[in-house]
Prior knowledge:
Radius of gyration: 41 Å
Helix content: 55-70%
Order of helices and strands: EEHHHH
Strand order of the largest sheet: 1-2
Number of strands: 2
Amino acid sequence: MRIEKCYFCSGPIYPGHGMMFVRNDCKDNSFEFEKRRSEPVKYQRELWNKTIEAMKRVEEIKQKRQATFIMNRLKKNKELQKVQDIKEVKQNIHLIRAPLAGKGKQLEDKMVQKLQEDVDMEDVS
């Protein structure tokens, strides 16, 4: 099946669709193609190997570009998620920090002072 390209919009034209304008001298490329179609193509090992290597390279590049695209998309989401997490922590800091956390240190200091005073009183007596 031969798919032609439209000379105007470069879109594909499938067989049985569209019109083809033939020159007045009746030279048509599709006739020449049909003539060559029945002739076997000479097998060239080097050309085949180059083609396979090129296909592999194109696939590698395609995979790398897709991975980069996905990572860039995820990077933006990570930044947004981080901002959202910081906002949530600021709003709910009372759930993280115990209400008596600062007072615990003060209570401990007071108890140490009382013990010191008691020890000092015993030494004086």
